[in-house]
Amino acid sequence: MFAVIETGGKQYRVQEGDLLDVELDARGGDADREIEFDRVLMIGGGDIGGGVSVQVGRPIVEGAKVTGSLVQEVRGPKIKVFKKKRRKGYKRLRGHRQNVLRVRIGSISA
Q: At 1, is the pLDDT very low, low, confident or very high (cuts 50, 70, 90)?
């Protein structure tokens, strides 16, 4: 069984047991904290009631939720930000690393 969820302005396709890096929320990161994703856009695979294999929301599937547990708070990959103006001798190189939450998907319910 899989689901498509939306969090942090991005969409992710998840299954039970997946590790997922999502945007850091305002609550911070306590280890083993349960996180609930209620913006479920689609559920597929398995038996979803009446033998339907895919259930698509308009825009979300009513009553569906995906739960996971917080594994740890980590930092994402480094991104280089480079600015240059040609023929002016102006160059700037900066870097950025986003704080993300690593979440293990536990259950998908419709």
A: confident
The three-state DSSP-derived secondary structure of the chain is CEEEEEECCEEEEEECCCEEEEECCCCCCCCCCEEEECCEEEEECCCCCCCCCEEECCCCCCCCEEEEEEEEEEECCCEEEEEEECCCCEEEEEEECCEEEEEEEEEEEC
Of these ranges, 19-33, 36-50, 51-65, the one predicted with the greatest mean pLDDT is: 51-65
DSSP 59: S
List, for residues 66-76, the tens digit of each pLDDT value.
Answer: 999 999 899 99
For the chain, give percent helix, strand, coil, nearest 5: 0, 60, 40
